[in-house]
Amino acid sequence: MNNEQVLQPDNVELIKNSRVGTSTKSSIAVDDPATGHVIGHVPDLTPRQILRAIESAETAFYKWRDVPLRERCEKLFRWYQLMHEKEEELAGILTSEQGKPLSESRGEIRYAASYIQWYAQPSLQDQGSVLPYSSIDESMIVITEPVGVCAAITPWNFPAAMITRKVAPALAAGCTMLVKPALETPLTAIAIAELAIQAGIPEGVLSIVTGDGEAIGKIFSESAVVRKLSFTGSTRVGRLLMASSASTIKRLSLELGGNAPFIVCETADVERAVQGAIQSKFRNAGQTCVCANAFYIHTKVYDEFTEKFIACVNQLMLGNGKNESVDIGPLINENALEKVEQIVADAVKKGAVIACGGERWVNSERWYYPTVLLNADSSMRCVNEEIFGPVAPIVRYNDETALLEELRQQQTGLAAYFYSQNLGQVNRLSRALEVGMIGVNSGVISDAAVPFGGVKSSGIGREGGRHGIEEYLETKYIKLSY
Ligand SMILES: NC(=O)c1ccc[n+]([C@@H]2O[C@H](COP(=O)([O-])OP(=O)(O)OC[C@H]3O[C@@H](n4cnc5c(N)ncnc54)[C@H](O)[C@@H]3O)[C@@H](O)[C@H]2O)c1
Ligand SMILES: N[C@@H](CC=O)C(=O)O
C-alpha cells in the first residue's frame, strides 16, 4: 500500500482486497476539503453486495471465533505494528480527505493503532468462572462468547480511530465486523483494512462497505445475521438506528454528539486553563465530539482568562493541513461552514460580542477564523448546541450551584472539563456533572485504556479500556450434572 495507490481515482482494487463486492456501476467521489479536488473514488455498493458482505462475515465468524484467543491477538498485534510502520502514509491519506493538520493526523494514526495494541492483550478478556453454589455432583459454569457478526458505522471527523476503537475489541473477542465509513473519509478506512489483510486477518473477518449511509444503515439494523451495531456519529442518526434496530433486538453501542462545558473556577490556575482550552476547543478545527463547546468562566478570573485566551486564539495559523506549521485546517464541507455561520449570527443577534474571528478566512472560503464570542448565554444556539467548529462562546458566571443546575438541563452528557485547585470543589463538580467523561485540569482525556462514552442523548455503552471488549461478548451459563 502506498499513498499514490490509495489516492488514485476509481481504485476498486483496494476495496476488492478488502473483500467487498467489486463490480459496481456507480462510484462515490472523495474530495480534499482543502482544495476541493477529487482525490479518489469508492464504490457505491448495491444492497445485494452489502447482503453478500454480511453473508461472508457470517461464514468467517464460525471460523474466526474458533481461532485461539492468543492467535487472534497475535494477528492484531501484527496489524498494530503495520500501522506504526505506515504512520506517515496513513496520516497523508487522512489529511488529504479530512483536512486536519498533518501533526494531528499522525497523532490520530498513533491513537487508532493504540486501540489495536490494547486489545491485542489476551488477558483483557473475562476469564469466566465456576460458581461455588452447586452440589458436589454438579457444576455451574459461566463463560463468555463472541456476540457474532457485528457492524459499525463511523463518522468523518476521526476516520481512523473511530474504526479501530470498534474493530479491535470485536476481532479480539472473536466477532467479525463490517464497517461503513463516512462518505467523506472512506480512503483511510480502506487503507487501514488493507493493513489488516497484510497482518493475516482472514477473509470476511473485517470488511469495508461503502455507499449510501441510510440504505446501509437500514440493511445492517434489519439484518438478523448482524447481532450488534456500533455507531459513532450524530444523535439524530443514532436515534434512527436505535429505532430501526428494534425489529431485530440488536445489541447497540451508540457514541453520539456532545456539548462539553469547559468551566474555569475561581480557584483555577488560569495559565493552565488557557492552554487546556486551546487544546480542547481547536483540535480538528473544533470538529471533535469531546471538544469544549461553551466556556463558563467565574467572574473572579474572567478578565484574566479572556485576555490570555483571545491572545492565544489570535496566534493560531490557518492553512492547508499538509503545511507542517498549520494549526487549523478547513472545515469538512460547505454545510459545516454554513452551520457555524448561522450559530454565530444567532449569538450576535442575541447580544454576543465577537472578540476575534467571526467570519470565513479572507484567503479561502473553506476555513472559518477561530472565533471568540463574549457575553454568551444559554438563550443562544452556541451554548445549547454542539457547534462542531472553531467557535468559543464565553459565559460569565458567579454562582456554581446555579451553573450546575443550568448544565443539568442539557440533554447531552458526553464530556466536561473544569479547572480548579480546590480539592473539595474538584470532588463536588466531578460528582455533579452528568457526563460520561471529565477532564479535571486537563483538556485532553482520550486514551485506549479508558472507557470512552456518554450518558443521556450522548449515547449508550463504552469503547476502550476493559469495558470496550464487554460490548462484544455474551455471557453464557452452563449447568453441568455429572
Ligand atoms: N461520541 C463519540 O465518540 C463521537 C465520536 C465522533 C463523532 N461523534 C459525533 O458525530 C457527529 C459528526 O459526525 P457526522 O457528521 O459524520 O455524523 P452523522 O451522524 O451525519 O454520520 C455518521 C455516519 O452515519 C452515516 N449516516 C448518515 N445518515 C445515516 C442514516 N440515516 N442511517 C445510517 N447511517 C447514516 C454517515 O454516512 C456516517 O458514516 C457529531 O455529532 C459528533 O459529536 C461522536
Ligand atoms: N475525539 C474523540 C473522538 C470524537 O470525535 C476521541 O478523542 O476519541
Automatic annotation (TrEMBL):
The keyword Oxidoreductase applies. SUPFAM superfamilies: ALDH-like. This is Succinate-semialdehyde dehydrogenase. GO terms for molecular function: succinate-semialdehyde dehydrogenase (NAD+) activity. The gene is gabD. Signal peptide: none annotated. Keywords: Oxidoreductase. Belongs to the aldehyde dehydrogenase family. Residues 25-478 form the Aldehyde dehydrogenase domain. The active site is at 255. PANTHER family: SUCCINATE-SEMIALDEHYDE DEHYDROGENASE, MITOCHONDRIAL. InterPro entries: Ald_DH/histidinol_DH (IPR016161), Ald_DH_C (IPR016163), Ald_DH_CS_CYS (IPR016160), Ald_DH_CS_GLU (IPR029510), Ald_DH_N (IPR016162), Aldehyde_DH_dom (IPR015590), Aldehyde_DH_Superfamily (IPR050740). GO terms for biological process: gamma-aminobutyric acid catabolic process. It comes from Idiomarina loihiensis (strain ATCC BAA-735 / DSM 15497 / L2-TR). Transmembrane segments: none annotated.
